[in-house]
């Protein structure tokens, strides 16, 4: 059985020949370097603490990784006691409890509203 020879014009091959682009050299990439991923825990804690304010804020829990609004608890700090002592010395003994009622005089402690883990704190 004679096989039919394709009657393709030889000019076609000559036309396509020089236009062939060596794709191997174009798409050859250097071997991917093995990148060691470090634990971002320290970075995450620093990021959340810098963005936490006196009010509830959106933060990612470092414990359960839940991203939601934090639960804020205001606790008196050293500045609160000093301010109360100062008011008491100046004669306002009935007003010395004001710093304990004013939230801006206290430390805002942010905890996870899901698992209760400590996320950060804000102090004026
Ligand atoms: Zn949590």
TrEMBL record:
Domain LITAF: 38-124
Membrane-spanning ranges: 82-102
Location(s) in or outside the cell: Endosome membrane; Late endosome membrane; Lysosome membrane
Record keywords, A-Z: Membrane, Metal-binding, Transmembrane, Transmembrane helix, Zinc
Main subcellular location of this protein, as a coarse class: membrane
Entry superkingdom: Eukaryota
GO cellular component, one term: late endosome membrane
Gene Ontology molecular function terms on file: zinc ion binding
Membrane topology: Peripheral membrane protein
Family designation: Belongs to the CDIP1/LITAF family.
PANTHER family found in the cross-reference section: FI16615P1-RELATED, LIPOPOLYSACCHARIDE-INDUCED TUMOR NECROSIS FACTOR-ALPHA FACTOR
Protein name per the record: GH19767
Organism: Drosophila grimshawi (Hawaiian fruit fly)
Gene name, Swiss-Prot/TrEMBL: Dgri\GH19767
